[in-house]
Amino acid sequence: MITKEAIALAYKEIQDEICQALEKLDGSARFEEELWEREGGGGGRTRIIQNGQIFEKGGVNFSSVYGKLPEAIKKSFAVEEDDFFATGVSIVIHPNNPFVPIIHMNIRYFELNDQIRWFGGGIDLTPHYIDEEDARYFHQQLKDVCDRHDSTYYEKFKNWADDYFYIRHRQETRGIGGVFYDKLNTEKTGVSMEDIFAFS
């Protein structure tokens, strides 16, 4: 069984890989890192890149926190125990070029015990100017990744993203969408946590 420690380590490595790739792509800007600690337990690494040749500003952040659940969440889970663990990577990138879309992405893992644990995440693009060919390419890449794991994932998670990122007071979607999923575990999917981790 995959452990929370292994997941957190893998997420740190993902943060490192993404930061290295973005620095290489930009060619001049470098990430500045700020380490932080959570009072209740754990902490993270906030990394910001800005004023580059390609990137106006972006963040690639990692967190791994633990502690006691707030009473309201404990009641919603209907559990007595309250020691939780959560880890994840979140990204927002704003390019200089208005024809290159803003990207949002995150992956996360939550654990209360062996029965209450899950993965979540998502990715979407927000272009200033929509290029239909680029939009189709982006969604095809997402579908290809999803299909390698389960042929039902793409449609299900695309629809979830369309609903999740819908701006109700404006009655419009945020950008061209993407995929979104939450609370994926063996009970919901019928596959192992290792397989869900590999997908996410």
Question: Can you lay out the helices and strands and say which pair or pack?
Answer:
Blueprint: H1 4-26, E1 32-37, E2 42-50, E3 55-68, H2 71-77, E4 83-95, E5 102-111, E6 117-126, H3 132-147, H4 153-164, E7 166-167, E8 172-173, E9 177-184, H5 186-189, H6 193-199
Antiparallel strand pairs: 1-2, 2-3, 3-4, 4-5, 5-6, 6-9, 7-8
Explain briefly what this protein structure is:
The protein has two domains: 115 residues, 3-Layer(aba) Sandwich (oxygen-dependent coproporphyrinogen oxidase), CATH 3.40.1500; 70 residues, no CATH class. Helices cover 34% and strands 37% of the residues.
Describe this structure in words.
With 200 residues, the chain is an alpha+beta fold. It has 2 domains: 1-115, 3-Layer(aba) Sandwich (oxygen-dependent coproporphyrinogen oxidase), CATH 3.40.1500.10; 131-200, no CATH class. Helices cover 34% and strands 37% of the residues. Strand 7 and strand 8 form a beta hairpin. The radius of gyration is 18 Å and the shape is globular.
Descriptors for this entry?
oxygen-dependent coproporphyrinogen oxidase; 200 residues; seven-stranded antiparallel beta sheet; 2 domains; 6 helices; alpha+beta
What global shape is seen?
Answer: globular
Radius of gyration: 18 Å
- Supply the CATH superfamily name of the largest domain: Coproporphyrinogen III oxidase, aerobic
Query: Helix-strand pattern, N to C?
Result: HEEEHEEEHHEEEHH
Low-confidence stretches: none
Instruction: Tell me the CATH topology of the largest domain.
Output: oxygen-dependent coproporphyrinogen oxidase
